[in-house]
Amino acid sequence: MLSKAQIKARPTVLWCYKKELDFSTHRKKRMKQMRKRQQATGSTGTGGGDEDNPFEVFLSSTQIHYTFYSDTPKILGRTF
């Protein structure tokens, strides 16, 4: 929903997780992992692989701050 909104100033997102994420929080590393997955599945990448997966579009187009649940007391009250 946020990725389809035509808003000039996109809202930032605070992503809290318990132990580990299934993906990398580093943008360049995540793009490299996406390319490897595309090559493994046999797609050429010319068809716009990320547009097919809305979650990947959301991750690449939104500014996200990642933090552990245990660090939430430090984060509460802050604005991003």
TrEMBL record:
Region Disordered, annotated ranges: 26-53
One annotated GO biological process: rRNA acetylation involved in maturation of SSU-rRNA
GO CC entries: 90S preribosome; nucleolus
Residue stretches of biased makeup (Basic residues): 26-38
UniProt cross-references to InterPro entries, sorted A to Z: TmcA/NAT10/Kre33 (IPR032672)
GO-annotated molecular function: 18S rRNA cytidine N-acetyltransferase activity; tRNA binding
PANTHER family the UniProt entry points to: N-ACETYLTRANSFERASE 10, RNA CYTIDINE ACETYLTRANSFERASE
Protein name: Uncharacterized protein
Organism whose genome encodes this protein: Rotaria socialis
